[in-house]
Amino acid sequence: MTIVLDQPTRPDAAAPAALLQAVRDSAATADDSGDLVGSHDRMVADGLFHILVPPELGGAGGTVVDWFDAALDVAHADPAAGWIMAQGAVQTAWIAVSASPEFAREFFRRRQTIATSSAGNATADRRSDHYVVHNPRWAYVSGSQGAAYLGGMVRTSTADGAPETRMVLVPAADAAILPSWDTLGLRGTGSHHIDLGDEITVPASRTFTWPSLTITRPGPLANVAAHTLWLISLSAAAVNLGAARRAISEATTSAEHKMHRGDTVPVIQQSPFVRGIAELHGQVELATAGVRALLDQLWDRAIDGERPSDEQRARLRLAAAAAIRTGADVVREAQLLTGADALHRSHPLERLGRDTHMLLNHVVTSPSTREQLAAVLLGSYEGPRSLI
C-alpha cells in the first residue's frame, strides 16, 4: 500500500532549524498557557511526527536513532514540545505497523497525529465489526489539544475468551477534552483527561492490540515497535537529556558576564564553574552515547529481521530511567552553578528545572518498574512479556 500525501515528504529526518527556533521562542508562552498546539501543528507540517513512518506511507523512513536525535533537538528547544514530538512519532509508528488497511489509508492521507493513554478503566465488548466501549475516559493524554484522533486502552477479550487489551481511537471531534493538566512542569504538553461519554461504539478497524502490537505491515520498524513500552521510556530519556544540554548552554551564557561581589573575572573564567560545567558535559554525553549505542544495536538487528529480546528491552528501559535521572540532575546542578538568577521565572533554567522534575515522577522511572526490569535481567520475572 502506497499513500500519496497532500504535502510532499521531507527527505530527511532532522528537525529544521527554523522550526526549532520557533518552538524555542514560544516555549515560555506555552508554559504559561498550557497550550502547544501552534508548535504541534508546525511539527506535524514539517514531518517530525512521521520520522519513523516508511516512505510508502508518506514518512521519512528514519531509524530509531534518527527519532531519538530529533527528540533531543526539540527538547533542547522546549522539553514539553520534545515530549509531544517523541510520543507523537511513536504513536504514529504504531499506526504505520499495526493499523488495519482501512484506517491506514484514512490516517496517512495527510499528516496528522493521535493521542492516547492507558490511564483509564475502560472495557469493551466485540460485536461483529465494532467494539462497544464502556466508561471511555482516560487521564494524561499528552498532545490531546492538537491530535486528529483521541482514545485509550480498553480491556476486552478475544473470540475464544482470552483477556486482551487494545487501543481504541475516535475522531477528536467526538471526544471532550477536560482541562486537568495544572502541573509544576511540562505544562505545554496539555496532558488532559478526555471523555467519550458513558458508552461509545468504535469500528474494529480503528482499534489495535496494545501494548504488544499485532503487526500488519512487517519490516524493521515493525520489529522494533512490536513491543511498545520501551519506546515510551526512551521518549522520556530524550526529553531530559535534551533539556540537560540546554541547561548547560543557559548556565554558560549566564556565566559569561556574571561577577560576584569582589570578583576580578566573570564566573565563566572561575575554576569552580569550569570544573562544574566539565562534569555536566561528561554526564550528558555519556548517557546520550549509551542510549544511542543500544538503539544502534537494536536497529541493526531489526534490519536483519530480529525483534528485541526481553533482556534487550529491559536493558534499554533501565538505561532510559538512568538517563532521565541524569538529565534532571544536570539541570539542577546547572541551576546551582548559575545561582539565584536561575530561580527567576524569566530565566530558562527555572522552567527547565520544573520540566525535568516532572519526568522523575513518570512510571518509567518508578522503583516498581525498575524492580520489574531487574527481575527480567536476573531471570526471575514472571509477569506478562507485554509489560517489559
Commentary on this structure:
With 388 residues, this protein is of the alpha+beta class. The chain folds into three domains: 17-107, Butyryl-Coa Dehydrogenase, subunit A, domain 1 (Orthogonal Bundle), CATH 1.10.540; 114-209, Butyryl-CoA Dehydrogenase, subunit A, domain 2; 227-387, Up-down Bundle (Butyryl-CoA Dehydrogenase, subunit A, domain 3). The protein is 48% helix and 15% strand. The chain contains eleven helices and nine strands. It has helices at residues 17-33, 37-45, 64-77, 79-98, 101-107, 220-225, 229-255, 271-303, 310-338, 348-359, 367-378, and strands at 114-127, 130-134, 137-141, 149-157, 163-171, 176-178, 192-195, 199-203, 207-209. Strands 1, 2, 3, 4, 5, 6, 7, 8 and 9 form a nine-stranded mixed sheet that branches. A hairpin with a 2-residue loop joins strand 1 (114-127) and strand 2. The radius of gyration is 21 Å and the shape is globular. The two termini are 31 Å apart. Mean pLDDT is 94; it is low at 3-11.
